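User: Show me an example of a complex going from sequences to structure tokens.

Assistant: Sure. Here are the input components:
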Amino acid sequence: MSRLADKIQDVFNEPGCAANQAKSDKQRKKGCSKPLQPGGAAGGCAFDGAKIALQPIVDVAHLVHGPIACEGSSWDNRGTKSSGSKLYRTGFTTDMGENDVIFGGEKRLFRSIKEIIEKYDPPAVFVYQTCVPAMMGDDIVAVCKVAAEKFGKPCVPIISPGFVGPKNLGNKLAGEAMLDYVIGTQEPEFTTPYDINIIGEYNVAGELWQVKPLLDELGIRILSCLSGDARYHEVAQSHRARAAMMVCSTAMINVARKMEERYGIPYFEGSFYGISDTSESLRQIARLLIQRGADAELMDRVEVLIAREEAKAWAAIKAYTPRLEGKKVLLITGGVKSWSVVAALQEAGLSIVGTSVKKSTKEDKLRLKEMSPDVHQIDDLRPREMYKMLKEAQADIMLSGGRSQFVALKARMPWMDINQERTYAYCGYVGIVEMVRQIDKSLSNPIWAQVRSAPPWDEVTWEERADAANAADDRQRAIFGRSARVA
Amino acid sequence: MAQIVTSTKSCTVNPLRMSQPLGAALAFMGLRNCMPLLHGSQGCTSFGLVLFVRHFRESIPLQTTAMSEVATVLGGFENVEQAIVNIVGRTKPDVIGICTTGVTEIKGDDLDGYIKMVRANHPELANVALVPVSTPDFKGAFEDGFAATVARIVETLVEAPAEGIAPDADRINVLAGSHLTPGDIDELRDIIEAFGLAPTFLPDISGSLDGHLPDDFTPTTHGGVSVAEVAAMGGAAYTLAFGEQMRKAAVALEAKAGVPFTLLARVTGLAAADELMATLAKISGRPVPPKYRRQRSQLVDAMLDGHFYFGGKSVAIGAEPDMLLNIGGFLADMGCTVSAAVTTTTSPILAQVPSDEVLIGDLEDLERRAEDCDLLVTHSHGRQAAERLGVPLFRMGLPMFDRLGAAHQVAVGYRGTRDLIFAIGNVFIANIKEPDVNSWRSASARPDQTDAPATAH
């Protein structure tokens, strides 16, 4: 356990983290996540975070060491796409039973690794530690070491049991496992001055592929993506890239920074959401590559490509602006990417009435403030308040993750998925056009008038009922003195 | 008699099974104004939440005691206490259902003791019912968690009728197993009410998870059976239990309030629906209503129309014990061979599954045994196997995240069985391989195929 405690301290101390730079030593040790609140918490655990971060490595067998709960209720539930192997979609778990709990689960884990290698022959087995075996003291590091020697295959322990913290901490611990056991363990056949890493991009709904053709056209090679559509050997060879783009800083800043420290790979934080962000990211990639020896003419080609793609995207969006102008959006994301999505929406002529910043860093919030000073930054919006906002038509559409979709739908308001399970991809120039198309499709659907109409025998309309419910809510709030925590 | 076999693999591949706490949470969701609470790490709850949301396409009330590493080591009383206080403050529930998980069971948290201490510390919570249930992840399956919870709700909330008060002859308790959808429960309610009986369903997910638009948004369950209604179940004349998993609850109800019960293991198929009608006719003392006589004749006609497509087909099923018996029994009634049956946990009912062998295993086991079958029946996670095998998949059970209407799938009674014949029969029809000019040529090249019994199309 001390090894894990050290790792967590290390991650908490991350000097690359913008939020950390403003903290004292003591504050830093406490970490950035708020303490979990019993009976008032939601969201995933550290194991969840680790699995999310690494599962998009598609040819690896992801083995979850724990009782059935951890894998049995979560496998095959994320829309990250693969251009080849589908092994990552197979759910592997030791499915610990009572006997394993009493006698220890290490033997079962070892035999499970053996079975997987015999049956599926993956390039590597990733072993995820969960709460129960962590509690019992199963040493998965030792088991992985022995198994790797015995079977001649990398077996990578991912030490991130659920109870150590929230999802975000798990993302970082997954990154640590890559740094400790995978990155730098293989050499690429050849390298070019145009090799980059992309860190913190998971290829949800194939989003990486919306950008990859542009990089291909520029002759820029993604040596490794951590971890969207990645192969084990790519991650193992990623230390030979010339530059890196970090897509989601809160998830994997530790990886980007440590790769800079260890292998001299400079990185920048960028986004492929929104037209100008995409262009800026392409410029940054070119800038870093040129710094590290690529031909300066790369930048000229980047500018030509940007000019062409931006013109195409603007023209496509322009067709929608008369229909979308003035429509109001409520944005409830994990907060991690809220600023990049806000940029994208404003480019489409939509106005944003509020955005959640629950998980955003101080830097994110500042950036958002700079970009759009009028946007409400909502710290923590309860479902009931969300419902109220929608019912009072303070917004025309809500964009959020799947879990809160029914708050919008039950209020008979349009809703669009922009989270993990989304089926449409919104990256790059083509993605932003797709996103606008989807918003338009949702807003213009003829069902809205129908579902809001009262039955002919009903004397009270849904709006009147909503008004009554909201009034009652306000009265109660006045009595209990509670107020919506809207910043 | 099926032989029950347990998988000897160390590694479970593509789990069929889900954990006990989730089954427990589903049962609690059938109580009105309830908040199910999982005593464990945050992830235990968030995984379950996502799973239920994707299946029911509804907001799901589910909370966590958010056990941290330190709380896990030192004991979780404070987390349980805080969670209950916070939930009451935020959502004002009538009842909180508290389920343990693997990690808090290992620690040895004494949940029943904790609840007593919470009661002692917080007299202001006296009007909130608290139902604790032990549901370790490392034992049993979804169905076991559901069953244990219903039994616990009966033990905790049902009140024994006062001395000398005669049971209400028109009132009937219905214990509804986890193999029933909200649509199934609605159908059963219609059938029971048609006999002039007033049923109380426990749990009743038909009102809470049936996908309707409530007038107001509540963070707890909207609909379901109320605490007061559950308390009054002791005064009913009779209990009908659906599914072997409900036996423990039925026995508990009999022990506590003296209500006799009948357990119906199956609800799908002509004989099963007949037994249901006959039982209700007996309990109510009324004849089977004309509506159901007509439905019965429709079902018989559907069986005649459908048997061409079911006869001789080989089917592989992955499902929890009660659902496995129900659907497997139905398919066997229609002339299918259940060539592979995989389930999640032990149950005395498994011996009755019409298959040579029932394996307690995973979807990898099912996939290996389903190579030559005509149909795969399991929940949505069977989609990868079906794709690899090139065999059609009929989705049944939970989770069903890649199709609409999971909550409204009805498979009980005459009408439900009739519709199921059409739904599955149409899958068979859609997959009939039309012969082409080379069909018999390639068949003769494989002599083993020429001896195969002709299937009726």
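The lines above are the inputs; the final block is the predicted structure for all two components together. Chain A has 23 helices and 13 strands.
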